[in-house]
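Review form for a predicted model. The reviewer records the input and the model, then writes brief findings.
Reviewer: anonymous (R2)
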Amino acid sequence: MRLKYQFKDLKKQKKSYSGKKKAHTFKVQALIHSKTEKILSLCMSKGAVHDFELFKSHLHLIPKNSFILADKG
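Model under review:
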């Protein structure tokens, strides 16, 4: 019986595979200034990562004293 995937291919697949969506995913989160429409931060992640976890990991890129409006996620 022949295996469909090699073990090393499955390891690569895990990084970007979302069990919830049953597909490979790539999440992008953009923070944009409301008046100037300038991009403040552009965060990217492979696989199933919660929005807030992605936001926390890139918090240092956001200017201090910024007002942030976001959804629950």
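Findings: The chain has one domain: 8-61.
Further findings: Helices lie at 7-16, 51-57.
Recommendation: see findings above.
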